[in-house]
Amino acid sequence: MNFEEHAAKPLLRAAGIGIPRGSLARSPDEAAEAARALGGAAVVKAQVAAGKRGKAGGIALVFSPEEARGAAARIIGMEIGGQRVEKVLVDEQVAIKHEHYAAVLNDPTSKGPLAMFSAEGGMDIEEIAAKHPEALLRFPIDIRAGLHRGALATALPPVEGIERSDLVDLIERLYSVYRDHDAELVEINPLVVTKAGDLVALDCKLVMDDSGLKRREATAASGTPDRLTAIETRARALGLKYIELDGSVGVLANGAGLTMTTMDVIAHHGGRPANFLEIGGESYTLGKPALEIVLSNPGVKSLVVNFCGAFARTDVMTGGILDAWDAVKPAVPVFFSIHGTGEDEAIAMVRERLGIEPYERMDDAIRAAVEAAR
Ligand code: GDP
Ligand code: MN
Q1: Is 59 in the pocket of ligand 1 (CB under 6 A)?
Q2: pLDDT digits (tens, 9 = 90+) for 314-372
Q3: What is the pTM of this model?
Q4: Which residues are catalytic?
Q5: What is the C-alpha separation between 76 and 50, in angstroms, rounded?
Q6: C-alpha distance from residue 90 to each of 62, 99, 120 (Å)
Q7: What is the Å distance from ligand 2's center to 189 Cα?
């Protein structure tokens, strides 16, 4: 789940990291009022879960409530990163001396949290990594031992205007935000040193691990729910994992790994998935809605049904699909690959009830589906 700046910054403040004063405005009038409360001068910032708002024209420095009203009128309704701006954050202006970068995120290489810091900030992390690779500190954290302050202090570059111990405090607090809210990423860019010498987070992006949503209800309440299509909403209510894509081969498989593999093999044969639906875990008895949902996407020109059973029985999954078959009446060719627990029964059912021969090799089933979609 993504957190917009106005939702992420209070989490920083609660952990002891400085942020500017400010408030959220949903209309030009509210923005003018918010600027007035700050003394007139303010920065008006589009609130969407997307980066590069500055470059897109979604951030304005203003010097009076009237200017704040005008900026909000211009920014609300803009489209940034495919999202319509519906609200702005009106923050006090900060006199910036220097912009830095700090983050803690899940790192696939070290298979744990990684703290990152760069004395050069304000631009994208990709740009920082390309332009100033030597200035970018990557500091893996051992999740059992916790953050080692001494090692971090040694690894950090000297930064003008910031005491090293203050920087270590900052990163330690950022790590606590990452831990306490089950974040995958928490990024402060820019982290600024003000002309008054304070360390302030001017922007923050936080992405929470969706697996943490249930136990972090209080945090999740301020996040931005995923925007789902009507079919995705229906699937989610049933506990089915369904994602719409824009190719032409439908994917119905059990288990995340097998689903990803199926999509990789589709791509390998030059095709593109139209969607994927996973009926793993507890939802393996939901063959009927699964078939309806996966075929309700009009982009689907052929369908791969790829089952590999261990605890989940392939005959139960297949039975559900066959029971739905007459009601759903698939109008596209369907290609089966069925392996593992219950495969003999499942394959016999497909043969007898549909007159379709499941493929012995997954690769052949998927290649045939890609060809049929053409
Ligand atoms: P992003 O473009 O979506 O990452 O938005 P940011 O919140 O990071 O803002 C982009 C840039 O706007 C920052 O890097 C700053 O240079 C500038 N900016 C944001 N807030 C202020 C402010 O209070 N004062 C000044 N002078 N510049 C600001
Ligand atoms: Mn930023």
Answers
A1: yes
A2: 999 999 899 889 888 999 999 999 999 999 999 999 999 999 999 999 999 999 999 99
A3: 0.79
A4: 101, 187
A5: 15
A6: 10, 20, 25
A7: 4
